[in-house]
Structure formats: C-alpha cells, structure tokens
Amino acid sequence: MLFNILALLLSPAWAALTPTEILTKADKIRNPDASFVMKVKVTSQGDSQDHVFDVSTKGNEKTIIKTIAPTRDLGRDMLMVEQNMWAFIPNLKRAVRVSLSQKLTGEAANGDISRMRWAQDYDAKIEKEDAKAWTLFLTANKQGLTYEKVRARVEKKTFRPLDAEYLTKADKVLKNAKFESYKPIAGETRPTVIAIQDAVQTDKSTRIEIESITVKDLPDSLFSVERFSSR
C-alpha cells in the first residue's frame, strides 16, 4: 500500500492524462489559444517559387488566408468558417467553394495552414507509448476535415508534437509530417517548420515555415462570407 502511494506521488503530471487532454496541450504548443496572425512561407520540391501567406485565425473554425506571393496569385485568398471554405478567384471576381483537403501548393493542403488544431476535430486514443512519447490515433468526429485520420506522436516531457501520419478513412497513409525547428515565438517554444512528404512518391515534399506569429484580437466581422464573396 505504501509503495503504491509513493508511486502515485512520484508519478509525472502527465501520467493520468486522457488522450484529449494530451492533444489539447499539444495544440497549445502549436498555436496560441487566442486569435492570431501568422506569416507562412511554403516551399515545395520542384517549385521554383516560394508561396507566402498571411493567415488570420480566430479559434478553431475561422481563418482567412491572404496570398502575398507569388505575384501571379495575388488576390487569390481563402476564407474558412467551420468546415466550409471558399477561394476568391480574381479573374472571375467571385468566391468558389473549395475543401480543406484540396491542394494548396505542393504537398500542403488548404487545411494544413488554416486549421491547425486537433483536439476539437478528432476522437483520440493512445495507440502505444514509450518512455519518450505517446502515439495517438485520431479519427475525425466531423465531416469535411483535411484528413480523415491522423497518427501523431507527442513528446511526454514537453507535449511537443514530433511527427504525424495523415491517413484516409481506409487507413492508407497519404503523407508523413515532421514538426521541427522549435523556437520561442508568441510566448511559447513552438514548431516553426512542418515538413510534409508524400507517403508513396517520397521525392515529393513541402516545407511549411512559420516566419512569425502575432497574437491579435480579430473581430468576427472579418470572417463574414458575404463580405468575402462581394469584394
């Protein structure tokens, strides 16, 4: 009995966490809780031009992506509200529906920079664990997400996401991702690079680099579908 009590007292704080609590902590490492604006550069193997975006996010379900580069794509911006997404096409002068899973550029999907939290979108279970990390298996709990399933490793000591597999509903691995280059940014040590590689054609890879994050209050009116569509 005494041994059991001592073991409980000496157990690390993360020992009794649920999968959802682990995911929530990992989400807080990836992004601030509050509304924020970030500058993202996306570089893809075989693409001679980098793509640069200003991403304004409020909560988990409101995001605007503004294209900064290349010049040919200026004005081609996107709005996400819940799982719905629209792209504004300048030459058509109107917004068209797109999906979170559609290609943004290279191996990056729209949702890879517009919807970057897991805890609210997925039901999680601990698939396995070792001394260093948990391996969590995530299953989408709503329609229209970027990926149907995710297998993610989260470091126990820091709750940092280490890497992930993005899977289809039938458990086929589509892409592999690594969360790298942890640096102090917006009040926390966060991954500033997400390296994504096609699971089959491994020569196809994309690097998402978060150049800055600024915590900023964003009004709900900024994410109005009517405002976005009538530009």
SSE blueprint:
Blueprint: H1 2-10, H2 19-30, E1 36-44, E2 51-58, E3 62-69, E4 78-81, E5 84-89, E6 94-98, E7 103-105, E8 108-109, H3 111-114, E9 122-129, E10 133-140, E11 149-155, E12 161-167, E13 173-185, E14 188-198, E15 205-215, H4 225-229
Antiparallel strand pairs: 1-2, 1-15, 2-3, 3-4, 4-5, 5-6, 7-8, 9-10, 10-11, 11-12, 12-13, 13-14, 14-15
Commentary on this structure:
By secondary structure, the protein is mainly beta. The chain has one domain: Lipoprotein localisation LolA/LolB/LppX (outer membrane lipoprotein receptor (LolB), chain A, Clam), CATH 2.50.20. Helices cover 13% and strands 48% of the residues. The protein has four helices and 15 strands. The strands form two sheets. The chain has a 13-stranded antiparallel beta sheet with strand order 6-5-4-3-2-1-15-14-13-12-11-10-9. Strands 7-8 form a two-stranded antiparallel sheet. The N terminus is likely disordered.
